[in-house]
Amino acid sequence: MDYKKLADFIFPDITKTIEDYEKEYSERGDVTVTRYAPSPTGFMHIGNFYSVVIDYVIAKRNNGIFYLRNEDTDQAREVEGAVEYIMHVLNHYKLSPDEYEIKGGDTKGSYGPYIQSERKDIYKCFIKYLIAEGKAYPCFLTAEELEVIRDNQAKAKSRIGIYGKFAKYRDYPVDDAIERIKNGEQFVVRLKSEGNFNHTFIFNDLANGEMKLHEDDIDTIIYKSSTELPTYHFAHLVDDHLMRTTHVVRGQEWMASVPVHYNLFKTFGFKMPKYIHTPLILKKDGEQVRKISKRLDPEARMTYYEEKGYPIYSVIESIMTIANSNYEAWREGHPDADFTEFEFSAKKMSPSGALYDLDKLDNISKNYISRLTKDEVFEFLDEYTKEYDPEFNAIINKDVDYTKAILNIEREQKKPRKDYAKWEDVKPAISYMFDELYNPTYEWVNITDMDEIKSILDKYINNYYNESDDKETWFEHVKELTESLDGYTSNMKEYKENPDNFKGNVADVSTVIRVALTGKNMTPDLYEIMKLLGKNRIIERINNIK
Fold first, then answer.
1. Distance CA 209, CA 196 (A)
2. End-to-end CA distance of the chain, in Å?
3. Nearby residues of 428 by Cβ (< 8 Å), 6 or more positions away
4. Per-residue pLDDT tens for 262-311?
5. Which residues pair with 546 in a beta bridge?
6. Between 366 and which of 17, 135, 418, 420 could a Cys-Cys bridge form, CB atoms 3.0 to 4.6 Å apart?
7. Tens-digit pLDDT profile for residues 409-461
């Protein structure tokens, strides 16, 4: 049959050849090339981010290239703002691609367009070649016919798809096909698969090892005349070949597509990239471990981490710890190294799934924030509150030095406090230091009788408080106050040996002062708090105890 006649009829305006594109998109040489290729049909989630981090590490560890490709072929499901948010996330986490294209905006790199809907002629060239070679064909099966085929296959417990006797238009006469297209009939182009389902091939996945898979014998759809766009599978082949992608990182759910992609690459004689099918992101839900859900789990969406104010360092570190089990040990030995210096190994990924734990993220984040200087903490807090809490931002900026002094309590020392896992935590933790926010619900413990509390506070203010005391003298005065109270001791050793002999101890008395001034029974260093509050506010707060 004259397949070239059919190809020229379907794509009369396509004059470039595959050889032309091979020259245009020349080999990059011995360079590692990874890509993040999202479909803008939804907003970025933690599974996407997991793949991005691995893409980025592989590229940067090998002085390679990481690029962004917008796979917008499913335009009916495209979500407005999704592409912009993807770019925002990449930039926010400092994972900016080396090559990318923003629709109507910036472009960087010479292997574009990086937006699939702008690559129509490229895909048509490759499809035209297949039709001309008799390796693809127009198919006119209607939705109703396809439904009947599926129903019959299901009843017979056969594999679902267009193959063998179900491929009605596989050898359809060229002139008849041309006539139907002339009459305006919609069609799809299907690959004329050369696979045999009874045969297997060896596929080596970098994360999952060597696998034996069945060949694909389905005549896969590669192009739809209604949209003039290719399907995902075909665009994947063309783009990863021409953009010279060396590594494809994608979720475990794409493993089922490997036979299709193997078949396509084999048809053209192209070398397949190396594949890393990442494990599922799991979470513990009570006694159950399940896949993290975009519908059920707020932490599944990337907006969650920005809204809560997790530092970018912490989020990336949490991903790296589940990517490779030896990352934490490496980090301990390289505390100041960039995460891209870690020698990532796909073989060390857990095939059974990666357990993502918010408690672990919090722990990583607390350790990180505790090591920051007061200036760094203020800078991050200022940036976060500008967007998410403007009222608090105005308060902390009234007196920046005062705010920094608060943030520095028990910070720049050998064992700093670890109060904050995220910037959202700061406000409730230090709100008592700002009169505008101070609205205490007093957390009295051990000593709860109000008459006794007032008596202790009056005695302290009138006889033992001196704002000029250094820390050692200040605590000696608190101990003296304790000894002056009937039934209390400042000797903690004596109290621990015979607690029933006393009403309380110096820690209980200190807690009364702490709660009176902050409303809380647990705070950082009380002496430092009092120095910052100053005498007038201390007296005012004590006098307000009802």
1. 23
2. 98
3. none
4. 999 999 999 999 999 999 999 988 889 999 998 889 999 999 999 999 99
5. none
6. 418
7. 999 899 999 999 999 999 999 999 999 999 999 999 999 999 999 999 999 99
Task: Report residue 209's pLDDT band, with 50, 70 and 90 as the boundaries.
Answer: very high
CB 108 within 8 A of CB 100: yes
Locate the domains of the chain by residue range: 3-13+120-278, 372-427, 450-543
Half-sphere CA count of 65, side-chain side, radius 13 A: 19
* Whether pLDDT at 546 is above 80: no
- Res 210 pLDDT > 80: yes
State the residue for tokens 């994360």. Answer: 207
3-state secondary structure of 296: coil
Spell out the alpha helix ranges (H) of 73-142: 82-92, 120-132
DSSP string, 373-390: -HHHHHHHHHHHHHHH-H
Query: In this predicted structure, what is the pLDDT of residue 474?
Result: 97
Ordered DSSP codes for 340-406: GGS---GGGS-TT-EE--HHHHHHHHHHHHHTS-HHHHHHHHHHHHHHH-HHHHHHHTTSHHHHHHH
Side-chain half-sphere exposure of 263, counting CA atoms within 13 A: 29
Name the CA dihedral angle for 476, 481, 487, 490, rounded to a multiple of 10 degrees.
-10
Q: Which CATH number fits domain 3-13+120-278: 3.30.230.70, 3.40.50.920, 3.40.50.620, 3.30.1330.60?
A: 3.40.50.620
With 0-12 / 13-18 / 19 or more C-beta atoms within 10 angstroms meaning exposed / middle / buried, residue 510 is middle
Looking at the chain, the whole-number percentage of residues with pLDDT higher than 90 is: 92
Residue with structure tokens 């127009």? Answer: 138
* pLDDT of res. 104: 79
Q: What's the rounded mean pLDDT across residues 143-149? A: 97
Beta partners for residue 355, in sequence order: 282
Considering the entire predicted model, what is its pTM?
Answer: 0.90
- Calculate the average pLDDT of the chain: 95
Distance CA 422, CA 419 (A): 9
> CATH topology for 450-543?
Arc Repressor Mutant, subunit A (1.10.10)
Joined together, the tokens standing for residue 502 give: 């006393």
Q: 141: alpha, beta or left, given left = phi > 0 and alpha = psi -120 to 50?
A: beta
Task: List Cβ neighbours of 34 (8 Å cut-off, separation of 6 or more).
Answer: 55, 56, 58, 59, 64, 65, 66, 67, 245, 246, 247, 248, 249
What mean pLDDT is predicted for residues 212-227? 96
Q: How far is CA 297 from CA 44, 79, 315, 323, 515, in A?
A: 14, 20, 16, 20, 36
Backbone angles phi, psi at 463, to 5 degrees: -125, -20
Cβ distance 428 to 518 under 8 Å? no
The DSSP string of 135-196 is SEEEE---HHHHHHHHHHHHHTTPPPSS-GGG-TTTT--HHHHHHHHHTT---EEEE-----
Residue 81's pLDDT is what? 83
Distances (CA, A) of 337 to 141, 324, 334, 342: 58, 16, 5, 8
The DSSP 8-state label assigned to residue 464 in this structure reads I
